[in-house]
Structures are given as C-alpha cells and as structure tokens.
Amino acid sequence: LAESMSVRWKRSPYEYFEFGTPDAYEVNRIPSVVSNTAQSWTVNVDKVRGAILTFEFKEQSVGFPYFTIDAPSGTVVELMVQEAHLIGGEPLLNTKFNSWTRFICRTGTNRFETFDYESFRWLQLHIHGTEGQAVISNVGMRRRQYLWPNPPQIQCNDPKIQKVLEACINTVHNSAQETIVDGMARERQQYSGDCGHQLHSIQNVFGDRLLHARFVNTYSQGITLDGYFLDAWPAFDRLARIMERQVGITPWGPLLDHGVGFNFDCWYYYLYTGDKLALTEVMPRLVKFFNYLLKIRIVNGLIPVENLGVPIVWIDHDAYKKQRHKLCAFNLYIAAMMQRAFAPLCEAFGLFEIANKVRAVGASIQSVTIKTFWSASKGMFVNNLPWISEEKEERTCDRSLATAILFDQCPQGITKFCAKALATVPENMGLSYPANANWRYWALAKTGIVQPIIDDFRTRWYDIESVAENNTIAEWWHVRHDNTQQWSHCAVAPLMVTYMNLAGIQPLTPAFKKVQIRPQLGDLEQLSLINYTIQGAILFSANGKSGNRLIEISLPKGCEGELMVPSNEEIKNLLPIGQPANGLRRYRLAAGQTHKILLKTV
Asked: Which residue among 23, 76, 319, 421 is least crowded, i.e. fewest CB within 10 A of its CB?
C-alpha cells in the first residue's frame, strides 16, 4: 500500500466515472485505513464518503489485477490501474483512458479479478456505496507472459548498462506475448516499422521463431485493395482511420513506411530461420505492395511523402521539422528495401524476373535520391537541399545518414562525414525517438564507432524515468506520470544492439549456417551472453580492456563463423581469410567448437 485517503462526493460517483464530470469530489489526504496487517487493510465507508487505496508493484507487468474484499452487500469498488503515478499527485488514477472496472459486493468475502488483462505498476481501489467497514486483502496480479523457449542470459560489468538491458528484457515480456505490440497499456496491436525491431531480440535473446512467423503472416493479412499495408494489424482503429481520412477528421493514415519495414521483417525472418513455408502466403502481398509503390511513384523519380490520399509517411516522431524533409530518408529506405530485402526474398522463392525488376527500380530510386539530396560539399545527404534557399537553414537526420551507411548508398563510398555527424549529433540533425534509435547505432557500429553507443546507454537510456521506476523502456526520452504516455514500449534498441553490434553477432547466410562475429566493446571490460540461433546456442564472453581482451566464442554444430577484428589486432591461434579490407581482418571459426581468442593491439 503506497497511500490511502478518503473522498467526499459532491456529485454522484457514477456520474463522474461515466462522464468525467469536473469538480465532482473533494479529497482528504489523511489516510483512510483504520487498521492493517502485512496483507490486509480495514477502511470505513458511508453513503457520502469513499475510501481510496493505492498499491504499488515492484515493476510494470502485464496481467490480471485481483483483490479480496470482505464488506457489506452492495459495496461498490472501482478498480483503476496506471503505468506511472506520483504519490501526492492525482488522487484518482482515472487519468489514462477513463478506463476502470466496477465490482459490486455480495455479503461476506468476495474475490475479484478483472476479465481483461492490463499493463501497469499502480493499482487503485475506490470503495464506496454502503455504510460500514470493509477489509481488503490479497491484492495482486496474475501475470500474463509468453512461454519463451529459452531464458535471456546477458551480463556486463557496467551497472547502468546492465540495468537498461534488464529493463529491455522486462519490456519484451510485456510487449511480446501472443502477438508483438508496441505497449499493452495503450496500443495492444501489431505494428511493423519501429515496433518490428523487437523481432531481433525475440529471435536472438529468447530464441523464439513462432512469434516472428505468426507476425509476418497475420500482419500481411492487413493488405488493402489498393496494395498498401495497414501499419497496425489486426487493429480495428486502422479500418476506422480510413473512414476518418476520407472525411478529414484525422491527420493519421496507414503508415507507408511501416509497409517498407515489413519487407525487412520478412527478410530477417528468412535470414534467421531459413524457413520459406511461413512466407508462402506473404510473398504475393509483398509483390502487390511493390506494385503499389510503382503506381504512386513520380515518373522516373521518387516516391512522394505528401498528398498520398488515405495513407501517409511517418518515419519518426522527433527527427523532422517539416513533412517534406522526410523525402530523402523515405526513398533511401525504399531503395534499400527493394535491393537488400525484397529482391533477395524473390530470388529465394525463384522469382528471378521480379527480383531483377525490383533491383532495377531500387537502384533507380537510389540514383534519383542521390542526385536530389546528396551534398558533395558536405559529403552527406541533406534533407532540405532543394529548399535551403527558401528555408535559410540546413537539415539532416540520423535516419537518412544511417540508412546510407548501412546499405552502401553514399557516392564513392564516402561515409566519414555521415559517420561523424551520427557520432557527434550536430544541432541541425534530427534525432529519432527511442524506438528508432537503433538505426543510428547500427550505422555507427558498421563504421567501427561504438563508444557513442555505449555512452548513450549509460546516459540517455539510463536516465529514462521508466528504467528506474518501472524496470521498463518508455516510448519517449522523458515521460511524465499520471497521463497517457506509455512507460512500457517496445523501444528495446540497447538489447538488440548489444547482441548485433557490441558482441557483433549477425547471420551471413539464411538459418545461421554462417555467422559473422565482430566484437566492438569500447570501454566495456566484460560482456557475456547467449545468442540462441536456429542451429543452437552461440556462447560469447569478453573480458579485459581494449587492446588486451580475451574473447571466448562457442559455436553450435552447423554454424560456421567468421570473426572480424581490426587489422592491428594480433591473433596467434587463428588463420586469417584473405587480406585486410576496410581496416578489418577476417578469421574463420570452425562450427561446433569453442574458440579462445586473445585480442592484443600490435
């Protein structure tokens, strides 16, 4: 029990809960509990005054809240939940979505549990309606959680980063159950795009394949007659949004960029598992989406981000001042999707003619985007290059620069200026909100710059209020209490990036038959984890400082490894593959063996 108080109703509490009537009650913050034990609390109520009891849980979870009450017949209890609350702040937790559950007691002991599950850390009981004494006990939650095939196992020496990783794991418990969602408290529906990134952690950290397979199939069923995907599916509000767009009562429509991201979700499923069966139903819908993009493309040009009718282009909440500034990032994203995700999938399914067409269109869009937005003088993509004289400032974004680095879209391979901007974050660069932060980190790691990533984990991520209070990752860099913001949102970039970029474990061929391991640990002195692949578990541990670090890698049978380290790192017990390239040297790691490697700077 965190706090209790009494409430005197100036208007009917039923009216308040139905209509949110203002100035309906007065609160007396003197505790309403008259006696208590460790697990039971006694309050007095009458026809005018009710009691409010607010309970705090250790962390935010998803489940069915319950309580037991012994009270006179007709006693009424409204149960409310909230993700985040400040003691001494809002008296009633009816501050989220006017969402509450009402129970009416019969004489004697009643055990109540909600029919639907909730995502919360705070639970409140408002008790009223009769004269007499009520005894409340056994307040709790029956947690709802997916039965993962493997327990997450990850440990590092930095307590702040470890705390962030644990918050990410708890967040995945909350956001990935029978479907993957962004947050169970507000939007219990499947998204691609920014919310699809958690699939990497579901595969690598927990070793689960079924959720990913279910996602690609069920999400693909949200394809429209026009050929674009509903950005969240199944989700009734997306159908309602189509109607609302037609009559102009919402700026939001189905997000086209989520359809682009869905192609990557499908490609990553195939890359992680090698399974084509789960994609059989999906592939014709991806072809339909490709043809839709061709239909809306400006002749021999770009895919627009404005005046699209019902669908819209979102990309990110934070990174853009104007809608047209998204044109560069969106078209680089489409070009990458066509050439690096959809075309390889077509080839895997034997659709070579379609694959050739897709690659050609992707290359054409990339060429036009370079011509339109590449600044030779700056050595990077500038989002508003065509309109700088009008806007009187230069705007870039982490998403454009990261996409260009990741998919080799910079002319002549010039990436150093893009990488420097991503590392230093100049004032004119738009920075993505948490669920899209992984793009910047992926690109930095590709260029060998990881210390800014690790520093971000220690500062920006650790400082998110939800990490300390709820053991979760919130949807924004800073969140407030007692409102509709999500304090458990699937923005788990630190977890996936630790696996994919700090330990550096990524599949090179479908089904993890060949894996690349490129450790980049910055100033971390210890990191150990298990990456669960379709071939079996990859065990990774690293100890020591940069320049004198012992790494141990155990590969499962059927998984051949390729270790990539800076060319100035000396390895005595492995034979290099070829000559150094891009400052890196490659070494072969045999499948089914444990390799102990001492990385010493020459």
From this structure: 23
